[in-house]
């Protein structure tokens, strides 16, 4: 990805604060979409199963 998850999230929050979406690169927008999907899957998975380590290892396997 080039960014760490936390760095990318931090940058995206700055964009959200300034509402400066016009300057967000296509690359960053694509990563934002993927992170949103991953985040939603994680939250849903944790809510349903409560088995975080297994879920994370499964996601890492799927996405990498």
Automatic annotation (TrEMBL):
This is Uncharacterized protein. The lineage of its organism: Eukaryota, Viridiplantae, Streptophyta, Embryophyta, Tracheophyta.
């Amino acid at each position: 990805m080039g960014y760490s998850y936390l760095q990318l999230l931090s940058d995206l929050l700055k964009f959200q604060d300034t509402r400066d979406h016009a300057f967000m690169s296509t690359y960053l927008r694509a990563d934002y979409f993927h992170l949103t999907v991953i985040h939603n899957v994680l939250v849903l998975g944790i809510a349903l199963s409560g088995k975080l380590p297994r879920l994370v290892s499964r996601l890492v396997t799927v996405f990498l």
